[in-house]
């Protein structure tokens, strides 16, 4: 059972960061998502909060809180401007349709 305090904390992290990515250092889907954001789309590191859950003592609880909030159990778990994107598959799909660039436009403009 995830504490309400953790859920509140995670919601704040999502709200306070233009891009939020819950990740794990060994996860190839996380590597692909971060590579797309940082290398392909040139999103500045300062715009993205990356939580490497496997290196955090409360990582499992944060992952459980994310699941409570958005129903997604896997990483990467991505938000852009507070909007839940999903995982790497979802990110790549948005990129193919051009929607990702649209979502990133206001972030890259300032
Ligand atoms: N289709 C998902 C696959 C993500 C996935 O399978 N991630 C694995 C780690 S590589 C995961 O979260 N496994 C459960 C866990 O680590 O708790 C995506 O594209 O993001």
TrEMBL record:
Signal peptide: none annotated. It comes from the Eukaryota. GO terms for biological process: cellular response to oxidative stress. Residues 19-85 form the Glutaredoxin domain. The keyword Electron transport applies. Keywords: Disulfide bond, Electron transport, Redox-active center, Transport. One of its GO terms (cellular component) is cytoplasm. SUPFAM superfamilies: Thioredoxin-like. It catalyses: 1-chloro-2,4-dinitrobenzene + glutathione = 2,4-dinitrophenyl-S-glutathione + chloride + H(+); 2 glutathione + H2O2 = glutathione disulfide + 2 H2O; RX + glutathione = an S-substituted glutathione + a halide anion + H(+). PROSITE patterns: GLUTAREDOXIN_1 (PS00195), GLUTAREDOXIN_2 (PS51354). The keyword DNA-binding does not apply. GO terms for molecular function: glutathione disulfide oxidoreductase activity; glutathione peroxidase activity; glutathione transferase activity. InterPro entries: GLR_AS, Glutaredoxin, Glutaredoxin_euk/vir, Glutaredoxin_subgr, Thioredoxin-like_sf. This is Glutaredoxin domain-containing protein. The lineage of its organism: Eukaryota, Fungi, Dikarya, Ascomycota, Saccharomycotina.
């Amino acid at each position: 059972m995830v504490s309400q305090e953790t859920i509140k904390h995670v919601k704040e992290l999502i709200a306070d960061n233009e891009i939020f990515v819950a990740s794990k250092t060994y996860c190839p889907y996380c590597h692909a998502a971060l590579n797309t954001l940082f290398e392909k789309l040139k999103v500045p590191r300062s715009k993205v909060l990356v939580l490497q859950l496997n290196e955090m003592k409360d990582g499992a609880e944060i992952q459980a809180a994310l699941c409570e909030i958005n129903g997604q159990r896997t990483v990467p778990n991505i938000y852009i401007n507070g909007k839940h994107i999903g995982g790497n598959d979802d990110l790549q799909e948005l990129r193919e349709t051009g929607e990702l660039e649209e979502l990133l436009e206001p972030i890259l403009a300032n």
